[in-house]
Amino acid sequence: MTKNYVHATENPLTPAHEDYLKAIYLLAADGEPVSNSALAQHMGFAAASATNMVKKLAELHLVTHEPYRGVELTDMGRQVALEVLRHHRLIELFLHETLDMSWDRVHEEADKLEHVISEAMEDAMAAVLGNPTIDPHGDPIPSKEGHIDKTPGFLLTSAPIGETLRLIRVLTQDPDRLCYLGSLGLYPDTPVILRERAPFNGPLLLEVQGQPHALAFEMAEQLQVVVTEPTPA
Question: What is the pTM for the complete model shown?
Fold first, then answer.
């Protein structure tokens, strides 16, 4: 398996190494320190397993771990994480756009394939897709050079009432939730208007392509939107 990055040691990385590095990157993107317990919960493993893997990654100079600061990626660790994330999100988009696989199924398939595609395959997929910058859920795709754009906007739960919004990112990968959102037409790039917001984290009343829908607050927390600029008269 060819990679753009050069390993800090002569030991090849396993899919498990790469999965943990990707998880650390995604957790750190929320701006909070990445603890071993949070990492274990994200990965679905016991805390002891996560602690053991963090030690291995530290020995490979891919992470650092200090009390109260949590686990942090080194420059090399970040490079690996972004490489794997690029593979993952390109595969998701390829499966969705080219193979017509539904957006609720592509994440699980990409998890399996992200570790095994060659750089030639990565380049071919990117070219066929027109060198995309977002995946089917609106998540940014890292560039081949390791740059990743920050997604603009804010959560639907804090959106202004009555403004025309555009859904730009869905923050869940849960298949059932994605199926439900899809049934409401809530895909990235869809126009949305927030009509009412019930108090005490109650449901939100939305207008999606002219159709009214009630959406639970916890579901609305998974939707990132921007205000649509009005069309000049």
Answer: 0.91
